[in-house]
Design goal:
By secondary structure, this protein is of the alpha+beta class. The chain has helices spanning 22-26, 61-75, 89-99, 107-114, 116-125, 142-149, 173-181, 222-226, 240-256, 289-297, 301-310, 387-400; strands at residues 8-13, 32-37, 52-55, 80-83, 133-135, 154-158, 168-170, 188-192, 197-206, 209-219, 231-235, 261-269, 275-281, 326-331, 340-346, 355-359, 366-367, 379-384, 402-407. It has 4 domains: 8-104, Rossmann fold (3-Layer(aba) Sandwich); 132-192, Dna Ligase, domain 1 (2-Layer Sandwich), CATH 3.30.1490.20; 196-322, D-amino Acid Aminotransferase, Chain A, domain 1, CATH 3.30.470; 325-415, Aldehyde Oxidoreductase, domain 3. The termini are far apart. Residues 120-310 form the ATP-grasp domain. It comes from Streptomyces qaidamensis.
Length: 415
């Protein structure tokens, strides 16, 4: 017979690596766990210790709701429904709302973090600088959009997507008119193009205060990566610039109402020094961000995100620094011409001693799709004595990394 006095957690999972080992994150906490996982996420799960595991082709809300209702009938109302991925956070909150789940992230909070106009409205209302923006269902024409936002260029964005998916920079009225004609106005927004250096701030908030935080500067941009350029970032050294960024991020998170949870926030520093909020995710950063934080700080941001959402105390506690904390990462996208076959690649490690981890594509490997931040043509992690030294190493790696691809005839590309 099911012991309904032990907390029940329902987990939506896509991760097949160490960041999907929720049993490890629980650290002996007594509970019942039900996993709803994609096939690729199954290997990471504790199959012997789980109350139930369901392998699902789809983790969409409408597909999961009948199953979650059945689980609640068998085992009682879950204490929390948790989705780790950007694709599942809103689904988990909607399932929680439908079942009257007491814990986890509330739907109002998640919607502020998922909907770009909503998040900018909340941050702007707190007196913090955000790009001027317009919901496209409020825009009668391209000319009206340009007038409302103060001129060109402008950025057309999906309201809920991540990783620069569907993002377009438009520099003319005709270009904007064509772009608007190809999108669903209820699913997109348009905003002011803000020039400057782009940073990301990563960490965990507990009880409305920063529990752990770092700040990093991007090398190239997420939009560059979507267009075929490598992407990286470098952790900032302790000092005034880092403090200003983390304080700014903390104020943004307070405006959004985040008390407990992990976050990945992006901001732009304009040439005159002004910080402008860009966007934020209610989750750890992607690409090599979580790996670098485990390696340099000993903090598993996914474990902390899971525990914060469930109301469990953090695993990581502040301690004295051990060894160098300067670090960064670099990832190469799939080739622009798809399908593409890797015909040559050479490691940059002999020329860049700051590289401590690399993943190279296999000779002959065929890329049939654009891939993600975790899939591509080269992954590198760096550590060094200072941000300046790591930044120089990242640029050297881009200069010396030998990579050559060719079109793979006969293979079929896919999205």
């Amino acid at each position: 017979m099911t012991d309904r006095t032990t907390p029940l957690y329902v987990v939506l999972n896509r991760s097949g690596d160490e960041f999907g080992e929720y049993h490890r994150f629980l650290d002996g906490h007594p509970c019942r766990t039900v996993y709803l996982t994609t096939p690729g996420g199954l290997p990471a799960l504790d199959q012997d210790g789980a109350t139930e595991i369901h392998v699902c082709d789809s983790l969409a809300h409408d597909d999961l709701l009948p199953l979650v209702r059945e689980i609640a009938d068998r085992h009682g109302t879950p204490e929390a429904v948790f989705g780790q991925s950007e694709y599942d956070i809103l689904t988990a909150a909607r399932l929680s709302a439908a079942l009257g789940v007491p814990g986890g992230y509330g739907l109002d909070l998640v919607e502020r973090f998922k909907d770009k106009p909503a998040m900018k409205s909340a941050v702007g209302a707190a007196g913090l600088r955000v790009p001027r923006f317009l919901r496209l269902d409020d825009a009668p024409s391209a000319e009206a959009v340009v007038d409302a936002l103060g001129g060109l260029p402008l950025v057309l964005k999906p309201r809920a997507a991540a990783g620069s998916q569907g993002v377009t920079v438009v520099r003319g009225v005709d270009e904007l008119r064509d772009a608007l004609g190809g999108v669903d106005p209820e699913a997109y927004e348009c905003e002011e193009y803000v020039d400057g250096d782009i940073f990301h701030v990563d960490g965990v908030r507990r009880s409305g205060r920063l529990h752990f935080v770092t700040a990093s500067q991007y090398v190239h941009t997420c939009l560059d990566y979507a267009h075929g350029r490598p992407l990286g970032s470098v952790l900032l050294d302790p000092g005034p610039e880092r403090d200003e960024l983390t304080t700014f991020a903390d104020r943004c998170l307070g405006a959004l109402g985040l008390r407990d949870g992990a976050f990945h926030l992006e901001a732009i520093r304009r040439p005159g020094g002004e910080l402008v909020f860009l966007e934020v995710g209610l989750r750890p950063g992607g690409a090599q961000v979580p790996f670098l934080h485990v390696d340099l700080y000993g903090i598993d941001l996914f474990a902390e995100a899971f525990r914060a959402a469930l109301g469990l105390p953090p695993l990581w506690q502040p301690s004295e620094p051990v060894g160098p904390r300067a670090g960064g990462w670099l990832i190469y996208p799939a080739p622009r011409e798809l399908p593409g076959r890797v015909v040559a690649r050479t490691s940059p490690r002999s020329a860049v001693p700051e590289i401590y981890h690399e993943e190279l594509p296999a000779i002959g490997q065929i890329m049939t799709g654009p891939g993600s931040y975790d899939e591509g043509c080269g992954i590198f992690r760096f550590r060094g004595r200072s941000a300046a030294g790591v930044r120089a190493a990242v640029h050297t790696a881009m200069e010396v990394y030998g990579l050559r691809t060719e079109r793979a005839e006969g293979a079929e590309p896919h999205d």
